[in-house]
Amino acid sequence: MTTIFQIMIGIILLALGVYGILVHWWALVDLASVVIPVCLVFFGVLSVLTGISTIRENRQE
Questions:
Q1: CA distance 13 to 7
Q2: Which of 1-5, 9-13, 46-50 has the lowest mean pLDDT?
Q3: Which UniProt keywords apply (predicted)?
Q4: Measured between alpha carbons, how far is 61 from 53 in angstroms, rounded to an integer?
Q5: What is the DSSP letter of 61?
């Protein structure tokens, strides 16, 4: 019984999510224009720190 309830809730949430995306698509564009540069900066910093860590490990060997 709980599995059926979970599936029903999931379908309802999916429908509401799709409706929200279709009605407020412009908000997704605004969100993407903010999230993408933030992700690029985050992964860039992560990449630099990983490179520095690798260089330090190679020097210690």
A1: 10
A2: 1-5
A3: Membrane, Transmembrane, Transmembrane helix
A4: 13
A5: -
